[in-house]
Specification:
With about 80 residues, the protein is mainly α. The protein is built from two helices and no strands. Helices cover about 70% and strands about 0% of the residues.
Length: about 80
Amino acid sequence: MAKKKTAIDFEKSLQTLEQLVESMEGGDMTLEKSLEAFEQGIKLTKECQQALREAQQKVDILLQQNGDEELTPFAEDDAD
């Protein structure tokens, strides 16, 4: 059975992912280390995405229980 992720795990995973990206962008890693970091980054990304999906499901369930089934999407900022 898979271990449940907590908010702390999500934040830690996200922070580790950011550190990996910074290290890889620095260009000082060997090819082998870069590939290891990339592999770890993919794993962390999947874990973070799963945690976000689970959080979204919890929000959906809570909204349905309270009778607020219709969600309004956030307005996206087009100032890129």
